[in-house]
Design brief:
heterotrimer; A alpha+beta (675); B mainly alpha (311); C mainly alpha (417); A: seven-stranded mixed sheet; six-stranded mixed sheet; globular; B: mainly alpha; 12 helices
């Protein structure tokens, strides 16, 4: 090492340090937003088809708009956006919220309640100025339902005729099918797609299934099965269908997603009506996807640019509200096809149809929304620049609110709630929302397989105390799984806190007399201050009131989900946010083997009642069936309801047009700032 | 200079091997953790779950996934899409988070070095004085108080009582200072103690006595002669400290709502965002190895006795 | 200052076994006394280090004695009447909360009743025969599990802790030290929680450090002694482990080991969550230790006493574990006192992330984290963070200073200073 370098070293090091410092300081400052709000966790995606969760909901409803839009009932404005009439809050401080026409101007409903005809609003445009038509909805919903889009909330569209079958990729002989050729312009993108042929499915030829080795894991078996299925050969008749492409294929053709060596004609083949066509091609052609034909078989059609006809499987009373929900929002076809997924969601590329567009986005910092001048109702949108801040910690959000960095905080720490409620500004009003906090009990595990013990656990829980002293936000102790506030529905209730009754139930339990006493119970929860405090308090209640030994187990989020999904728990904390404002979303999850049941509970009578309710045309009768079903649930208690959540919105007094409601729908386009 | 080149080449080889092993170990570990990246509160219908897995190649055999992903990193520098933040690729997430972490880290380190060495020197030169005791007490407190406690207290004092700084957020210089101070505090404490120890040792050496004997003033002796030797332990500490600052910052990122990389670390791990977690691990490891190499190099530059060839 | 003389080397020409033995004896005697005594003397002169030592000793003794002290229950939550109380001087009777339904509204009363019930049952068991006897035995067992009042106020006390708690009831009855540190958000006594937290925190610190010590010292010693490619490979492995972000691995390891089936498997073997926690942390703090020990061993292995051992015919293992490791003890102790605070700090960091000690166990990290949750500009329950924070900081502080003091004391270069 040369001595001169060595002598210079301290200076080099210092120079490096200073240049680094200069670089660190050089970040420019942002112009301030009109309105900043606490959006919780980072938004996972702004693709309406792929999104799920509250933070996504808030920004998506600001940027996109469905056929209908979320709207407080009785809120009216004149052309300039001056308020004509405001709704009145109920005794809890909640405002009624429903749906108002958005991209559609109006709709008609058929006699049987299954066919909706929407009339598009004339002159609606995308933010790039191009017109928005009924075809955009057909294409967007098709994209959401397409199996390769893999939309988490895709099942919100499964009310549509044939939609579920389309997503699952199931086809039967005799169906009209769409065959996508493997000539996609972009191999990795489901959209834009390759050429589509439409045809009638005449037969399915299935190769012999390879038997999995004895010791194969479930995953391996699944994978083997998938490979086998991809080798199926589909025989179709083109003459019965249409084609989108110019090339004229032969009438009878065979397709397969995966060409396997060997003579496919020797396969075990299922033919339509048992009739085998006279001549068959020697080799099947390779295709990318073979799905149920969307255009003919799925219940959404656009006869012209201004009309959208939607056909449902069953009568669905809440469908209009669903059209205001983000999985049913349209996306811009040109934008998606030009940039592909996920690049079309980048701020520079994103084309929206709602009140706002995205100016820029910084991960875990903020998403800046600016008013969309092309929005049809833009005159009545008052806030020009809105920042959705990704702030995870509620304490930090509170600090930011108190120093004027935020105008709306969506969650506050439980420990300060009493002091917030007492503030003279009256800026914190907790109102009930349709969310339930409950404990799942694993009914396949002793001692929770005993109904008396489960009842005893419920009776021994002082939910009032938990609400008053732990959660503190005006939550209501819960005695049913369906929260109150759904019109026409009256929940049957489970037993109230009563130590003597609890002990009497416990004495009836088969475990009370068992050697070794009642097996240990363990409460599993995901780590969070409130969940931990509640679990500790319930542990003490069960210990003191019933003398049951209770352990606590906290898991980080994904382990907790996994423990719940695989039923590796005995008691597990849970919450349920409804997908739509209807009792059914709380009721149908407890069906035998239901995906979200996760308690192992099963009751044939319950299943029958829920099924009856689904088929019941009379709305009132439908609710009665569900009430009967819930009565069974609240008697057998595979779950213990604990409390109904309240919304914890801290809203600056200068924000107007903010309407507390039970569905937590807060359209930003209604908000305005008045000093 | 040949020695340096050889040294760097050998080091580069070693870095590649280390990175590969770290990658493989993380991959294996991650795939054995319960839960998957697409678990959500409501269980997805099996068909949709399958479609999602197909979309992200998770239906492939593990070994195929391993080689595919490794290949993409090696040949295209592409860590793939983030599974949880689906609008972004891992590279984009890192590109956005790194500058934030880096600038906060630089501030914190600068603060730690300046404050740490100064108080260390003063403590050593004025040994057993009031200065010494109070500096060392402060330094040890900096090490002994968890930084989330420090940050919470700092917010109450500096944000709400004195109103010097904004509560949280990112974008202006004022918003960096408070988190950087909290982040740097334990390192300042450590550096102060290291400097003091190193200084005390050097001050007893013959060449310092010689310098004094030559009639040089105290300031000159300390700054010109003693400091250089005393800084060696500090320099070697800076390597691991940088890595620590990167992960340590996650607490402060949460408290001050900063969009740095630290929070991705824990989030990606706990949400099973495999590509992002791997990306974070690789970045961390790269930075650590880079810093260690820099430390070794500067070691040789500061101390004439250290020969770089001998690693 | 009197510098102990190095023992003169026994010369081979010294005739007579007796004389040789005497010399050896003498040499051993001098060496044994000099190193540690000298260090001790030097440590004693360091007032801060000695203060720290006393403080740590006091905290440790207190932590051991906690069950005997007249503290309130660290678990019993009185949400109705004792939520977020500031420090007060009014005392509380143990077991007087109504919901506990203790006989005479006191622990002593309930304990008396419980024991009477047990006695009666035991007598019945002694008298009964056949099926009845089995039934009664089962009832006895059930009563032990479900009726025991000590289980309601303390978290699954083991036999020793139970004995101590009984002693506490015998000594102090239902009297408790008042909530001098206030109460927390769920109405528990903070003083009692801080004291019980000391047990967990110190044990986490010490056990995790001992785990790291066991791994680090043997690993470093083996690498250092064997040298050559073994050393190279082993140290490269340490380098690699150094470059894996530690927090990432801890999250995954805790998740993997926390999965129900694995957890059950471990629990059947007496390994609970807390033990897993110690081991996982300990498994990561050995790296520095290994490096340091290796360095020392390399410099020691060419010394004559090792040569001598080898000449006598001692095996590799014996040389490493009997001769080399005792000689690196000094530096190991120094690192020990510095690792304990690091581990304790790490524990509090994990608590911040929600991965730390699980309730109803309490640790300082958990308490401090709970305390910072209630520091908001709206309202500051200062007592919930100040006391736990202070004890944690003081302990870490003392451990750090003690470590420094020990290093100075054991450092041969400091000998004449």
């Amino acid at each position: 090492m040369h001595p001169s370098i060595r002598n210079a070293f301290p200076y080099i090091a210092l120079a490096g340090l200073f240049s680094a410092l200069a670089w660190a300081v050089s970040f420019g400052t942002l112009p301030p937003a009109d309105f900043s709000f606490h959006n919780g966790d980072e938004v996972k995606t702004v693709d309406p088809a792929l999104a799920y969760g509250q933070p996504e909901h808030r920004v998506l409803t600001a940027m996109f708009e469905g056929l209908y839009r979320e709207w407080p009932i009785g809120y009216e404005m004149d052309e300039q956006g001056n308020v004509i009439s405001e709704p009145e809050p109920d005794e809890n401080g909640n405002y009624p919220v429903g749906s108002a026409p958005g991209m559609a101007e109006s709709h008609e409903l058929s006699e049987d309640g299954r066919v909706y005809t929407f009339h598009m609003r004339p002159g609606v445009k995308w933010s790039d100025g191009s017109p928005l038509t009924a075809h955009d909805f057909v294409w967007s919903w098709r994209r959401t339902l397409h199996p390769e889009t893999a939309a988490v909330y895709g099942y919100q569209l499964w009310y549509l005729l044939g939609a579920k079958k389309y997503t699952e990729g199931r086809v039967e002989v005799g169906d009209l099918v769409e065959i996508e050729m493997p000539n996609r312009p972009r191999a990795d993108q489901p959209f834009p797609r390759g050429d589509i042929h439409r045809a009638k499915l005449l037969g399915i030829a299935r190769p012999r299934e390879v038997r999995p080795p004895e010791n194969a894991s479930d995953e391996d078996k699944e994978a083997l099965k998938a490979t086998w299925r991809s080798g199926w050969v589909y025989i179709v008749d083109h003459a019965a269908g249409d084609t989108e492409s110019d090339s004229e294929p032969t009438k009878i053709a065979a397709y397969s997603k995966n060409i396997v060596a060997g003579d496919w004609q020797k396969y075990d083949t299922e033919w339509l009506d048992g009739k085998k066509p006279a001549s068959l091609p020697n080799k099947p052609e390779k295709c990318k996807q073979l799905l149920l034909d969307f255009e003919s078989s799925v219940g959404v059609k656009a006869p012209d640019a201004s009309t959208l006809v939607v056909t449902l499987e069953n009568r669905t009373p809440f469908f209009i509200d669903l059209t205001a929900f983000y999985p049913l929002y349209p996306v811009n076809r040109a934008c998606v096809e030009q940039y592909g997924n996920p690049n079309w969601t980048r701020p520079d590329n994103l084309v929206t149809n709602g009140a706002y567009t995205m100016e820029f986005r910084r991960v875990r910092d903020r998403m800046r929304l600016i008013k969309n001048p092309a929005y049809w109702d833009a005159d009545r949108v008052k806030l020009e620049i809105v920042d959705a801040m990704a702030v995870k910690s509620a304490t930090t959000a509170l600090n930011m609110y108190l120093t004027g960095q935020l105008e709306w905080v969506t969650d506050v720490p439980a420990s300060v709630i009493p002091d917030l409620i007492a503030r003279p500004e009256k800026d914190f009003i907790p109102t009930p929302v349709l969310i339930i906090y409950f404990y799942r009990l694993n009914t396949t595990r002793p001692p929770l397989d005993d109904v008396h013990l489960r009842r005893a656990l419920n009776l021994a829980m002082d939910k009032q105390l938990i609400c008053e002293k732990v959660t503190q936000g005006g939550q209501m102790p819960a005695r049913s799984i369906v929260p109150p506030g759904l019109p026409g529905y009256n929940s049957p209730l489970c037993g109230e806190f009563d130590v003597e009754a609890a002990r009497a139930e416990l004495a009836k339990s088969k475990y009370a007399k068992l050697p070794g006493g009642i097996p240990k119970i363990e409460i599993t929860y995901n780590d969070n201050d409130t969940h931990r405090a509640i679990a500790e308090v319930i542990q003490q209640m069960w210990k003191n009131n019933l003398g049951i030994n209770v352990d606590l187990k906290s898991l980080e989020w994904t382990s907790y989900l996994d423990a719940q999904h695989t039923m590796q728990y005995s008691v597990c904390r849970a919450g349920w946010v409804p997908d739509y404002p209807d009792a059914n979303t709380f009721i149908d999850m407890w069906l035998t083997g239901g995906g979200n049941n996760e308690t192992g509970w099963s009751n044939a009578k319950y299943d029958a009642l829920v099924k009856q309710a689904a088929e019941e045309p009379d709305p009132d009768e439908r609710l009665r069936r569900m009430e009967e079903a819930e009565a069974i649930l609240m008697d057998e208690l595979p779950i213990v309801p604990i409390y109904y959540y309240t919304g914890k919105n801290l809203v600056s007094p200068k924000v107007k047009g903010f309407f507390h409601n039970a569905l937590e729908k807060y359209p930003i386009q209604l908000m305005r700032i008045e000093e | 200079m040949g020695g340096v080149v050889g040294f760097l080449l050998r080091r580069a080889c070693w870095v590649v091997i280390t990175l590969w092993i770290v990658y493989t170990a993380s991959f294996i570990l991650m795939r054995n953790v319960p839960g998957g990246p697409f678990d959500s509160e409501r269980k997805l219908p099996a068909e949709i779950q399958k479609n999602i897995e197909a979309r992200y190649n998770l239906d492939q055999p593990l070994l195929t996934q391993y080689f595919d992903h490794l290949g993409n990193i090696l040949f295209r520098g592409d860590f793939g899409p983030s599974f949880r933040m689906t609008d972004f690729t891992v590279n984009q997430v890192i590109a956005q988070g790194f500058p934030v972490s880096a600038s906060m880290g630089i501030f914190a380190i600068t603060f730690a070095i300046v404050l740490g060495t100064l108080s260390g020197i003063v403590s050593a030169v004025r040994r057993h004085s009031v200065w010494d005791v109070s500096f060392m007490t402060a330094a040890t407190l900096g090490i002994a108080v968890p930084n989330f406690v420090l940050a919470s207290l700092a917010i109450v004092v500096f944000v709400f009582q004195l109103q010097w700084f904004p509560a949280a957020g990112w974008g202006s210089l004022r918003q960096i200072i408070l988190p950087a101070l909290c982040l740097g505090a334990p390192y300042a404490g450590y550096i102060a103690r290291l400097t003091r120890t190193g200084m005390l040792e050097v001050l007893g050496r013959d060449y310092i006595r010689t310098a004094y004997a030559k009639g040089l003033g105290e300031r000159r002796v300390v700054m010109r002669h003693a400091l250089r030797g005393a800084l060696l332990p500090v320099v070697s500490y800076l390597g691991p400290a940088t890595a620590g600052i990167l992960t340590g910052s996650l607490v402060l990122e949460q408290i001050f709502a900063l969009p740095g990389m630290g929070s991705h670390f824990v989030e990606a791990a706990s949400q099973r965002d495999y590509p992002l977690a791997l990306g974070m691990v690789m970045i961390y490891t790269c930075l650590l190895l880079f810093m260690n190499t820099m430390v070794d190099l500067s070691y040789a530059m500061i101390d004439p006795r250290v020969k770089i060839e001998t690693q | 200052m009197a510098v102990p003389q190095a023992p003169s080397k026994p010369t081979l020409d010294a005739s007579g076994a007796e004389q040789y033995a005497r010399l050896l004896e003498e040499a051993r005697g001098i060496q044994g006394v000099s190193l540690w005594q000298d260090a001790w003397r030097r440590l004693q002169r360091n007032r801060i280090a000695m203060g720290s030592l006393y403080f740590i000793a006091a905290v440790s003794v207190l932590a051991i004695l906690v069950p005997v002290l007249p503290l309130q229950s660290p678990l019993d939550k009185d949400l109705r009447d004792r939520k977020n109380l500031p420090p007060e001087r009014e005392t509380v009777r143990l077991g007087s909360r109504d919901e506990l339904r203790f006989a005479g509204n006191s622990l002593a009363g309930e304990l008396g009743e419980y024991e009477a019930m047990l006695d009666e049952l035991q007598q019945q068991v002694a008298l009964a025969t056949g099926d009845e006897r089995i039934d009664l035995q089962q009832r006895l067992e059930l009563t032990r599990i479900n009726r025991d009042p000590l289980r309601k106020l303390w978290n699954n006390p083991g036999p020793i802790v139970r004995g101590m708690l009984r002693l506490r009831v015998a000594l102090f009855g239902d009297w408790c030290i008042p909530s001098l540190f206030g109460t927390d958000d769920l109405g528990r006594d903070v003083l009692s929680r801080v004291c019980w937290g000391a047990r967990v925190s110190l044990v986490v610190g010490v056990v995790a450090t001992l785990v790291s010590l066991a791994i680090g010292v043997s690993y470093g010693a083996i690498a250092g002694y064997c040298g050559g490619w073994i050393d190279e490979a082993m140290m490269r492995f340490v380098d690699i482990l150094y470059s894996i972000p530690f927090i990432f691995v801890v999250i995954f390891l805790l998740a993997i080991l926390g999965a129900e089936d694995r957890k059950q498997w471990l629990e059947e073997r007496g390994i609970n969550q807390l033990v897993i926690f110690y081991v996982v942390i300990g498994a990561f703090y050995w790296l520095t230790m290994a490096r340091v020990v290796r360095g020392q061993v390399i410099s020691l292995k060419t010394e004559q006493f090792v040569e001598a051992a080898r000449v006598i015919g001692a095996g590799r293992t014996r040389i490493i574990f009997r001769h080399l490791i005792p000689n690196v003890l000094g530096i190991v102790i120094v690192y020990l006192t510095l690792t304990i605070p690091a581990v304790m700090l790490f524990e509090s960091f994990l608590s911040f992330l929600g991965l730390g000690v699980q309730p109803p166990d309490v640790s300082w990290g958990l308490l401090v984290n709970e305390g910072t949750q209630v520091i908001t500009p709206i309202k500051i329950y200062w007592w919930q963070v100040v006391f736990s924070g202070m004890t944690l900081a003081m302990t870490l502080f003392s451990l750090n200073f003690l470590g420094d003091g020990l290093r100075d004391a054991l450092d041969p270069r400091m000998k004449n200073r």
